[in-house]
Specification:
Layout lengths: L2 H14 L4 H21 L23 E6 L5 E3 L2 E3 L1 H14 L4 E6 L5 H13 L4 E5 L4
Parallel strand pairs: 1-4, 4-5
Antiparallel strand pairs: 1-2, 2-3
Length: about 140
């Protein structure tokens, strides 16, 4: 055989053969991807709330928010009711035990020291608040 004929037959053999191993790898990776992503496609958007375990028997859980306001004189208002600083911790714990959302909204007069606001936020977090919010009131 002449040299050109051997070279041409090798080219034909190389072009005629398609490597199938990489295609099998790609196909298996696609199957794995769709198997892993299928549960996310079929998830429903329905969320079920379980009953809170921290509520005391006999008390009913509500969508109660705890609103705290510190006025210009440093007095503390809990849900629009004036309370003393020494009973604040206990009252917040009682309100949060009845709340399902456990949201605490704190606002203060403009010239109140930040330490008082931080103390209120800290006590609320210790007593079980899940979400804390700072609110700026209009004068």
């Amino acid at each position: 055989m002449n040299r050109n004929a051997i070279f041409e037959s090798e080219i034909e053999n190389a072009v005629g053969r398609i490597p199938i191993t990489p295609m099998i790898n790609v196909a298996l990776l696609l199957v794995l991807f769709f198997m892993m992503s299928a549960p996310a496609i079929f998830m429903s958007g329905i969320k079920v709330k379980s009953p809170s375990l921290t509520t005391e028997p006999g008390t009913e859980a509500t969508e109660l928010k705890v609103n705290i306001y510190i006025d210009a004189e440093g007095d503390l208002y809990l849900n629009e009711e004036l309370i003393q600083w020494d009973e604040f911790s206990q009252r917040v714990a009682e309100l949060l035990a009845r709340s399902t959302t456990r949201i605490v909204v704190v606002s203060a007069a403009p010239h109140i020291p930040i330490q008082k606001v931080v103390t209120v936020l800290d006590i609320a977090r210790q007593k079980g608040a899940l979400k804390l919010a700072l609110l700026r009131r209009k004068e």
